[in-house]
Amino acid sequence: MPFTVRRIACAAALLLGLQVHAEEAPPAPASSFTNSTMDAPLFYQLLIGELELNNGQAGVAFQVLLDAARRTGDEALFKRVVNIALQARAGDQALLAARAWGDTLPTSVEAQQTVVQLLALLNKPAEVPQPLRALLRLAPADQRPGFIASLPRLFQRAPDTKAVLAALAPVLQAQAGPLKPAALYAEARLALNAGENARALALTRELNQAMPDGDDAMQLAVDLMPVEPQAESLITERLAKKPDQHALRQAYARTLLKAQRPADAAREFRALTEATPENPAVWLALGALELELKQLPAAEAALRESLKRLDVPAAGTDAEIKARADGRQSAWLMLSQVAEQRGDLKAADAALQKVDGSGLDVRFRRASLLARQGKLADARKLLKPAADASDADARAALLAESQLLREQRDYAGSAAVLKAGTERFKDDTDLLYELAMMSEKLGRFDDMEAQLRRVIELKPDHHHAYNALGYSLADRNVRLPEARQLIEQALKLAPGESFIVDSLGWVEFRLGNLPEAARLLRQAHAGRPDAEIAAHLGEVLWLSGAQDEARRVFAEGLQREPDNEALRDVMKRLKVKP
Question: Which SUPFAM superfamilies match (predicted)?
Fold first, then answer.
């Protein structure tokens, strides 16, 4: 007997058994049951469908149960059929079932919602408008904004984001009244995903006007900042009117930090420490930023404030307890670094003793202390990966060792470590980039350019590589038009990043455009008062006749980094006394 016939025979026997059992059972009181609308053929059909599914015949089960769903108009059964198709990875069949569901039950909100979701899953944005309009027409009024706002998330992995925007924009633009803000948000988010940043910014501004107290426009503005700098004004205006929006300020500060604007980020975290002084996370973030800005007393003060709050025993989830422990580790590591930069190696070692574990970050700090004591060989041994280390750990150790040697100004040694790394990890853009920086330090400019161009070839959005090559050309006063082009490309990839703005200012200086150079370098210095940026700004100001301002810039730079070579060289050349 064929297997299929045998299964049907088993199903028939089961049906017969159920019927006999029903006949033998004593009659129930009339009030204890309700007649089912399911007749025997339908019951048999459902049973066969489930048996086919249990025996691995998903295609047969799909057809049998879909027919039953059409006959009964049962939403739960339609949902079951859609799930069967999805579990079998048959997206087109799931869509067919969902459309049948909508045709059979034309007032079903869930049917139209399922069709829209499946069209997104199957990357068919052009087919979305009709079911989306139906969904918005049928759904309760209070659910419609949520359906609209969820559209960008549904299509976030779509390969052709411009096609998604083109398909959905007409539906979104047709919304009015209470649905208008959600439609503006969705269209702005889709425009941002599609790279239409100016359009996204215009829609965000319109949304901010429509909902001046809402969060959606601010979320968009924060996400737009890296690609559309004008979005920042929306955030600063909101914070000026509503300084108590701490979550927005924290998101803004994190975005400034990602944009390599630590001075601006530190300003926002200082405001957060004043507004939420019991939050250890904002003190820890401020301490890290002050350390990066070489403001050692301020860094130490902020880090100790974070420890006061992290050291207080507190209940919480395992994740919260771990986060507090990690915060303490980070604070002590940075306090060790503060003491080391201050030249107090004993205090640096004492802080390091408070840190548990032997991770690479801890070993690097210990190695740095050894190197400062003249024990470079021991320091390097401390960073060597174990023989059975993974590729990721070995690569991280190589980068750490090269950084240690660079900090000791052993540029040839650092280059040798990185060269060995590139032979093991071929075409690793991080190793190649760092090797290029060492090649420049050693005066091997042809090697540096070849290495940076290889980085750009491998990773066309590597803005540091464009910037480094453009700056090197400008600093050597060669191929200045090409240098400007490279740096402008870097700035397109990372708008507002202070080091890139500094490079562009230096190109303008080399080209003789002193007013524009001064403007750009002031902007760069305000976002990151780095000693090398101070050297550039001070030189341009000095040659522009603003010598008092130049002296102030030089003095601030020396206060942060007294031993900075670039700063001392330019002051010596210009005969400016420290």
Answer: TPR-like (SSF48452)
